[in-house]
């Protein structure tokens, strides 16, 4: 039986006339003394246009290089870097819930327990409050190489192909996110419990993850008095700028 999951929801000095006249003559002589190759001129114009487009894009949307550096820095500062987690959410047809439970209860443990796969199943939960008839699965891979290796292997696995064929007709929709766990909050190992779990989701403003984590982390200890932390993750692929964390209540 799947455990239950709660989801709340500068200035320029002007030239004198004489200086300006001298400058004009110099520029004129310079222009007339040079012969410009048309092909070179065309390439130069294209290069200038490309630089102009880059400048405009940087002004409107921010520098791509700086954004990449910021994202890498945040990931290195916040994440443990050992594992990659995948959050899967399945929305099941109401009349197919029982059939879905039987199917995933059989096949998901087989995938997780296969020693050739670099993946572990952190847990599976059914949603009681929030999106009804939905189920949440969290997988733990041995880094991105483990994620890639596992997917490639499953694509060539006959049993997995059969499982996916049976799964498709039972679903309304499915979604997933690739996440990293926060370095101060290690994901708990799988365990069977009849308690209630709470999965919280936060959608952050872009570029505010590090700031948010600093404030949020200070307040986590207060909750430990009443419930046990299961895990906390921030998205890397999928719905970006999103944080999930889970607690379990006795």
TrEMBL record:
Q: Which Gene3D superfamilies match?
A: 3.30.70.100
Q: Give the InterPro entries listed for this entry.
A: Dimeric_a/b-barrel, NIPSNAP, NipSnap_domain
The coiled-coil regions, if any, are none
Query: What are the residue boundaries of the NIPSNAP domain, all occurrences included?
Result: 86-181, 197-250
Name any Gene Ontology BP term.
mitophagy
Record-stated family? Belongs to the NipSnap family.
Protein name (record): NIPSNAP domain-containing protein
What's a GO cellular component annotated to this UniProt protein?
A: mitochondrion
